[in-house]
Amino acid sequence: MVSSVRTLLWSNIVLIILQGSIAQWYGATTSQPTISPGTSPLDCNFLYGYCSWSSTLTTYRWQRQRGTTPSTGTGPSTDHSGTGYYIYTEATGVSSGQTARLQSPYITKTSPQCLSFWYHMYGASMGSMTVKLSSTTLWRLSGNQGNYWQQARVTLTNPFNKKVVFEGVRGSDYKSDMAIDDIRMTNGSCHSPQVNTVCTFEPGTCGFRNDYSATFTWTRKRGSTTSTGTGPVSDRTYGNSTGYYMYIETSSPRSSGHTARLVSPLFSKPVGATLCLQWWYHMYGATIGTLNVYVKDSGSTYKRRIWTLSGNQGNFWKRANANITTRYSYTTSYQIIFEGIRGTSYTGDIAIDDITIFNSSCNATSGWYTICTRSCSVQSNLYITDTYGTYQNWPL
Asked: Do 168 and 86 meet the contact criterion of CB atoms below 8 Å apart?
C-alpha cells in the first residue's frame, strides 16, 4: 500500500511540473482511488476521492459532494447511485463564463476506447459541459437538461498518450451547478444501435397526420405558443425560435377532456422484433392534461398504449422512450399515435419533438435510451406500459 501511495504522489508531482504551477491542480493525491484490479485507471465513482482525476485548484472547480448542492433550483439531490458521492461545479460566487477543468492521467491504450459517464445539468441558467481528448472537442452540451442523471458515451479513437478533459463553463447566474458521476472507460468503440430519425418537424410533418375523428388537432409551431404560462418557447432540435415542433393548443374553444391524436405513417419492422421509440416532450402548465402514446398494428383498429404521463412536468423539454411491440408477433408494419388530452383550463399546452426509432429494444443498451436508472422518483411514472389486454379501439 505504501508503494502505491508513493507512485500516486510521484505521478502527481510530474503532473504539477508539466502544468507549471504547484497550486494549479489537485485531486489525485487527496485520497486513495476506488479502482479495482483490472479496471481502467479512468474509472471512478468518486466514493472515496477523485481516483486518478485532477481538478483545477481555483474558486470555480470540480469538487466532491454528497446529497444536494447548496443552491436551490440547480444541481442533483443525490449521486447517480442514490447513496454515494459525485463531483460538481458550484456556480455561486463566481462570474459568468468561468471554466472548471477536470483531467485524467495520460492514457496508455493505443486502440479505440469507449468513455461513458453520467451527467446532471439542471438549472434555469445552465452553462455548458465539454469533453475533450487533449485539445480536440468530442462532446458538448449546453442549457438546462432537466433534474435527472443522464448517460453519455464518447469514442476515444486515438487515445494513446493523451488526456481526457471535462470542462464546465458557468452560465449566467448561480442556477448553473453541473455534475458528473460514474466515469468508465472500456476497450473498443462505443457501439450505438442503428438509429432511424423519424421526424424533427423542421421540413414538415414527415407524413404524420391528424386523426380528424378526434375532438381537435395537433399544430406545427415555432417559437412560443399563444398562451402565457404554458407551452415551450422554442423547439427542442435547435433550441431557438427558428425550429419547429408539434403541440396541442388548449385555449378556447377547447374544454376539459378534449382529445387530439397525431398518427404516424406506416413503419416496417422485422417479424417478432422489439424496437425502441424515443421522443422529447414538453408538458408545462398548471392544468396540463395527459399525453398517451399508442402502437397500432397494420390492418387493425386496435391500439395498445405503451406510455402515458399526466400533469405539469416543468418548463423544459424531457426525453422519453418506450418499447415498440405489436399485438401479433408476425406483424411487420405498424403506426405510432400521440394522443394529447386537454386538462381543466387553457394552461395545458403539450408539445412533442425529435422522434427517433432505434432498431433494438429500449432495454438492450439502457444507457442509450434511459433517462435515469436510479434515484428516479421524480420520473418514475414515465414508464407505464399497459398489458396486451388493454386496448383502445377507435377508427382512423
From this structure: no
